[in-house]
Amino acid sequence: MCIPFLGNNIIAQNKWKGNTTPTYYELSEHLIELSKTSEKVELYNMGKSDYGLPIYVCIVNGAKDSLATFKKARKETTILFNNAIHPGEPDGINACLIWLDEVIAAQEFSSEMPLVAFIPAYNVGGMINRSSNSRANQNGPNEYGFRGNAQNLDLNRDFVKMDSKNAFVYSKIFHGLDPDVFVDNHVSNGADYQYTLTYISSLNNRMPDAIKKITNESLLPDLEIDLHENYGIDLFPYVDLKGRTPEGGIVSFNDLPRYSMGYTALFQALSFTVETHMLKPFPKRVQATLAFMKSLISWTAQHKTLIEKSRLKARKSIATSKTFSFDYDSDGFCDSILFKGYAHSFPKHHITGLERLKYDSLAPYERNIAHYKSFKPKKKVRVPKYYFVGRQEKDVIKRLKANKVIMNKLKNDTIMQLGIFEVADYQVSKHPYEGHFKLNNVKVKLGERSVALKAGDIRIASNQQNASFIHSVLQPEAEDSYLTWNFFDSYLQQKEYFSSYVFIDKIEEILNNDPALREAYDSRMKDDKEFRESEWAQLYFIYKRSPYFEKSVNVLPVFFQF
Questions:
Q1: What is the pLDDT of residue 14?
Q2: Is the separation of the CB atoms in 274 and 181 below 8 Å?
Q3: DSSP string spanning 201-254?
């Protein structure tokens, strides 16, 4: 199936084929020079990173003008590769540089070649923090960058919360190009096995039907054949272990919106993460990444029309969907998949005196193992026609705008009967996670009340192509909602209280004016000894149900209308 876009007998620069990977400065200088000397290569500074240095995007087969090139990308078929989100995993950098060398050496493009873009080094801060030992388990290169950015954030957890400058630059690149296909290049940690390269695809059950069909019936089968026949590479799903070793089975990776491919999948891009194996030599890993890159470009060229139609169909289905499903989990069903692994044992270690896991690369095997790839959502909610967000939520609105959510400002103050999200329960993480004490296991009660909206508040229609992103961040119970990432913590705190010695004089009037409250109070007094003996408990019980209690407690500044 492979279409040779490039000329024959092309030899890439050897420096990209060895056991070294460029520094940020070497990489940038090289690409700047190529963009000046080659008419095929375009390089654009898309904005400053967390470290204050530029994040670039390199484009091949563009229109040789920034505005025209990005317009072409959105109109025609485009692939985006992301490199060095974890700079200790630099295989994609070298692979893209070798591919560029081949592109430049080629006499001409195939007329079917898509627009190809890649981010040379996304995590600039991590690229600068260079050493030879931060990846203790990895076989090369000689030096490489660090996983965390300059703020010690894992940028592959930041695509929704957008704590980094990098994330805003990324959204500018991504939405500017609107890529049809996206690949994030990584290097794995985990079990030992024969494969040099594995991949992560979006959860089958989460993908729109049109994307699922093209991925499973065309893209993956064709890539598997092409990589095996033309590159001698066996393509295999990412080895996320069910137990301690592969024999216990593997589980499909849950690509939440916080991750790069989970994020891009929200916008109906065909999204993948490539994971080369940490124990394979760096040059071999680079060649495998390059092979995947070439094969995917070739497949994309042959299926432009199918890709565009599938994305359009998926976007229409998302925009018109009446429900939103989330909190996916394995349903326990599995398929059998042929796995090429290594025998393992548990000998005692001579220092620890305890059993350790040991793989034997001299004892390869092939056997069927369980593959848990069937997932079901635990939660499904009805999709509102509109969301409303208070104008004061500038951080939320900023992120919605960055992700090209269509919205409009209310021109006048108005009172509307709207649905409310009232947070009933949640758990706070015991330890910080990526700069946040994240909220988990959120439970929300839906209600309805008269809401005084202000001029400047935001109205968001659900029937737009970015609806998956909108629901993912505004539905409070979703795993990566803005509530879970602490954007609304201030609304979970009561602001006004009472002085007992004053308020106690009001309770008789309150109870007399509210027979239902009087009945509830009397019942509680009868049945609860601890309640009877606590003045504070009694007063707060009445206060919370009285007109004096603030109605905004635990109510989010996000409203909805069906």
A1: 67
A2: no
A3: E--TTTS-HHHHHHIIIIIHHHHHHHHHHHH----EE---BSSSSGGG-EE---
Average confidence score pLDDT of the chain? 96
Strand, coil or helix: what is 194?
coil
- Looking at the structure, do residues 513 and 486 belong to the same domain, yes or no? no
**Same structural domain, 306 and 389:** no
Q: What is the pLDDT of residues 48-67, one digit of tens each?
A: 999 999 999 999 999 999 99
Torsions phi, psi of 70, nearest 5?
-70, -35
pLDDT higher than threshold 70 for residue 7: no
Tell me, yes or no, whether 417 and 513 share the same domain.
no
Measured in whole angstroms, how far is the alpha carbon of residue 225 from the centre of its chain?
A: 28
In this prediction, residues 268-288 reach a mean pLDDT of 98
Name the domain count of the chain. Answer: 3
DSSP state letter for 384: P
Query: By residue range, what is the domain housing residue 428?
Result: 384-493+557-561
**How far apart, in Å, are the Cα atoms of 521 and each of 504, 512, 535, 544?**
14, 12, 13, 12
For 33-53, what is each residue's pLDDT tens digit? 999 999 999 999 999 999 999
CA angle 452, 455, 457 (to 5 degrees): 75
What tens digit of pLDDT does each residue of 191-246 get?
999 999 999 999 999 999 999 999 999 999 999 999 999 999 999 999 999 999 99
pLDDT digits (tens, 9 = 90+) for 332-372: 999 999 999 999 999 999 999 999 999 999 999 999 999 99
Identify the residue whose tokens are 């602490």: 486
Looking at the structure, do residues 505 and 481 belong to the same domain, yes or no? no
DSSP string, 291-353: HHHHHHHHHHHHTHHHHHHHHHHHHHHHHH-SEEEEEEEE-S--EEEEEEEEEEE-PBPTTT-
> What does the DSSP assignment read for 414-479?
EEEEEEEEEEEEEEE-SS-BTTB--EEEEEEEEEEEEEEE-TT-EEEES-STTHHHHHHHHSTTST
Q: Report pTM.
A: 0.95
Boundary-marking domain end, from 276, 292, 319: 319
Q: DSSP label at 144?
A: B
CA dihedral (100, 104, 110, 115) positive or negative: positive
155 and 136 share one domain: yes
In 3D space, the residue among 415, 412, 416, 410 whose CA is nearest the CA of residue 390 turns out to be 410
Q: Are residues 505 and 405 in the same domain?
A: no
C-beta of residue 128 within 8 angstroms of C-beta of residue 405: no
Instruction: Say how far apart CA 186 and CA 189 lie, in whole Å.
Output: 10
For 367, the 3-state DSSP assignment is strand
Q: How far apart are CA 286 and CA 300, in angstroms?
A: 21
Which of 319, 337, 370 is the last residue in one of the domains?
319
303: domain CATH number?
Answer: 3.40.630.10
Q: Are residues 49 and 166 in the same domain?
A: yes
522 CB contacts (<8 Å, ≥6 apart)? Answer: none
Which 8-state DSSP code applies to residue 9? S
